[in-house]
Amino acid sequence: MLVAGIILVLTVIAYLAKVVGGFEGVQFSPTVSVIVVILLAASLLWILVLTLKGRLIGRRVVFLYVGIAVSLPLFMSISQKIVISPETQQLYDAISELPSGAKVLVSFDYDPPSAPELQPMAEAFLYYCFTHDFKVIVIGLWPQGPQQANLAIDKLLALPEIEAKNLQYGIDYVNLGYQAGNEFVIQRMGGSFESMFPTDYSGHPYSDLELVRNIRNFSNIDYSFNLSAGYPGTQEWVQVAVDRYGLSMGGGNTAVQAPMMYTYLQAGQLAGLLGGMNGAAEFEKLVGREDKGTRFMLSQSFAHMVVIAFILIGNVAFIVGGRKKKL
Amino acid sequence: MRREIPLAITGIVGVVFVVQYFIPHFPFSRMNDWFSDWFSIVQACAIWLGALNLLKISAQKIAARKSDWIYSIVIVACFFLIVIIGFIEGESFRGQGTAFSWLYDYVYTPLSATMFAILAFFVASASYRAFRARNFEATLLLGAAFFVMLGRVPVGDMLTAFLPDGYRLSALASWVMNFPQAAGQRAIMIGIALGIVSTSLRIILGIERSHLGGE
Question: How many CA atoms lie within 13 A of A5 on its CB side?
């Protein structure tokens, strides 16, 4: 317990040092990484043995292992092969068919709590749009959505390959901001974008923005991508914009929400789906810019493994304890 | 009249929204636009109402020294801090390099993400303590969770690398998501939709009045 605790504390300190700077070289070699994995697996095996002997562990130990599983992989040099799922490939194929100059509507329907999953998707999608000269129109049905969009756009504009394109606000991309009204906003956009967004995020009149001046409604949009963490989100976009106005749309959802979208995907109402951080990592691989989604997948792999290990240990305790003992 | 007017508004708006879906022409199209705009205005006002209500509840908690009242001070202080900074910085308060955007990027965003991330610890603990193979259904759920959790991360394929391409864990997870899971979701969604239709009809016809308070 003590050793595990020390490892966790050191890991957090090392990560902070890495973020702050000065310790750029903090990275386990592949051998050390493998040794750490073996130690972790051995300690879990030891917990299993203890459980078989009737000695149960407390929830704090579980918390500790989750902490280790999430933080240690940030320093490991283990490469994982990201396998592209059919739903991610479908999204990529859909945007690959768009011509240069295509108008893409991106709705940011999430807030910071879901950003670790959805922000990498947003960045990868916008990266593809910017590098392929698509015209990007950003809106948000969640109050913090447009702010999240700006974070992604600012980060991408600082990249040399994007900076070289000299993208202009109002001509190549625009952020129309947030509008209250949930699915009613989508419905009104079916008639007129300007009625719902008379000004952009910074207060410029709609008619002054060259990019959107001639965009009246969904019929002028070539493709739409919705980043969603709940209500209103992909489901509402499908029910109103796709079903009623025939908008071609792909979705980027949190891992919790993604299973609900498979029905729309199979019905052809969604042209592609990214689910959780795994979806983000897959899409990053496809667009050729591996970033946070890919980097954090090792942590997610470890966390999943640890949760599965504890589910198995819990069931062993359940069986050994005569199916009565509570943990 | 306190009941009749809201009931009439509900009924008229409900009928218009249903009719305009099938007849998207004047006058229903125009009425749909009006009512949609009204909804946006009402929702925007509700955001204010929510914020003021939060302030009121927090202030009452502080005044009465109820349990955890100290957190209410944090809520009130943060509320005013953000509002005051927003007003001081004027129209461009959300622009790059403003104090507001700094607070958003480096305080609000990491704190929100942290709160959400804590779920991972509780999910792991809850799975350990409660995810049991008690009966056939629970065992089936456990098996599906096992394969999907492993199949949705790259390590799943690493563990089954010895198998042919279409038989690895990612393929199995994909099958679970696309067939049994999607079938279950579809059934749930159809059930919910039928429930929404019946409840909406009850509200439009004035049979269900709980949204007006009382009864």
Answer: 4
